[in-house]
Amino acid sequence: MAAGGPRDLRHVGVSNRQRADGTVEWGVWVAAGEFVREEPYETQLVVGLDKAWRAGNGVLDVCREDREVWIVRGDADGRELTRVAGVVVDAVVESRQMDHPEWSA
To answer: Is residue 31 predicted with pLDDT exceeding 90?
Structure first.
């Protein structure tokens, strides 16, 4: 993992917009996406977020737009997208800390 500690990595934010076709598109910003670059943690994060969001009610599609930004399309709840992302990020950060105790808050 790069700069910043676990607290910095746990930041998650969302915003949404209505598309011309009437569907809602959520931009979900996950700080850990920028900084978690070490395997197997990066894969755990990316796959974990994708699976968790796709399992949510109303989610039509998920794609990674940038290292720390995902687009979630559909009639999802922003608070739920944020909560689920937090669960995945916490698990990845805690896994990293268990494997490398010297890296902690």
So the answer is: yes
